[in-house]
Every structure is written in structure tokens, then in C-alpha cells.
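Intended use. Records like the one below are meant for learning the mapping from a protein sequence to its folded structure. Do not use them to infer anything beyond what is encoded.
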Amino acid sequence: MMFNEIRFERFDNIAVLTLNRPDTRNAISTPEIIEEIETACNTVNADATARVLVITGADPAFSSGGNIKDMREKKGMFGGTPAQIMANYRKNIQRIPIAVHGIEVPTIAAVNGPAIGAGCDLALMCDIRIASEKARMGETFLNIGLIPGDGGAWFLPRAVGMAKACELTFTGDILDAAEAERVGMVNRVVPHVSLMEETMAMARKISGKPPEALRMAKRLLYSGQNTPLAQHLDQSAAFQALCHCAEEHHEALCALMEKRDPGSKNS
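Structure written out for the chain above:
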């Protein structure tokens, strides 16, 4: 597929998705950009060689979320009767949380600038968030009389806890990068000029782990949030049995005992 709204690139086994509409501050409410994001996510899942997906935006913003001009003019997904608007959300922007949360490999958001509303939620959909010092993040829906219609009320409490999520949602406050790190919205803050360098360094570190075990570890982390302990332990035992019988486990043990990097014997 040819991409017009995003850039989708591969660097060895790391995929990078860049929202590429700086003229709209990378708004994500048109069918075109939604389809391209979904396609990129599906491409990563279909590629057994992919190890990590990085999501970022073309400067100066990560994403401004929904296009407020279209909201005011009742255009696109924001037009029609209440029933039609409800269907528009399901058929359009709600495809993004399903696609991003469903990615089987680790995901890292490189938050290069303002991430507002649905843009903030897109960052929260990722497993790890690294922010530029220029980043700003806000769950700002109530400021314009809306609620988080794209899953933000599901993702935000999992990042910062329920009480802080309530505060951020009810006030609509926009946090600078340092405060976002303090409350747990991002993992770390780095200088803007080194954002992608730092992000790719983490991506390479993660991508160096045994790939099958890496995907299973991610599945366990998320399934453990919603399953009873006994069920989680059963799933862990099943996954661990698969890992013990995998060649990547044997190679990792040999590399550790021989004091070399995994795979280096054959390289």
C-alpha cells in the first residue's frame, strides 16, 4: 500500500510509523489516516521478522487528535444524527485503539511535541512512551464538551492510576513533559534533538531479545490485567513450556554460558 498520510519505514527489525500531516498537526480523524495507521499495524503483525514498532509524529506535533474545524462544521465523522455519529466513531477512530493495542510486538511512542486529546490517547496506547522536552500531553475532551471517545478512559487509568486519570480528565489540564513523566504518562524525557536516537536505542535493545518469548511476554503482561491469578498462572505455564522447547532459549543459554551475544556464533 502507498502511504500518503503517514510514513512507514523499516530499520532492520524495527518498524517506524510517523504521522505525516504537520499541516493539521497530525490530526487523526480522517478515514484516510485512520486506514493507513490500521494498515501499518496489521503489516507489523503479519511480519514475523518485526520486533518493535515506534510511533511518532512529524514535527512540530505528535498529534492534535480530532480536527476541531471539522467538529465545528459537523463534517466527516462528526456529522449526522447521534446514531450516525456513534457509528462513525466505531467505523473510524475506534479502529485505532483496536489496531495499536492489538500489535503483538512491543510498541514505543516517541512523543515529539503536543499530544492532545486523541493524540494523547494514541501515545497511551503504546507500551512505552519516550517524550521530547517539547512534548505536551492532555486529556482535553471536556474542554470542548466531549468525552474520550477513542478509548482514553480505558488507557489513561492504566498509565497513571484512577485518581490521577479522573483529575486529568475532569480538569482537561495539559501537562509539560516533566510533569507527564512525574505522573507516569511517559517513561522518560529526553532532549528534543535526541528523541529518535534515544527511542531507537531502546527499540534496538528490546529487538535483541528472543522474538517468540518477547511476543509472549507482552501477551502475558496485558492478559494479566484482566484475568484471575490462577488463570494467569496456567497461561504462564503453557507459554513457559513453549519457551523451554524453543531454539532461541537454547541459544540464549549457550550465549550466556559462553559469554557472547546470542546469535554471534553464526554471524
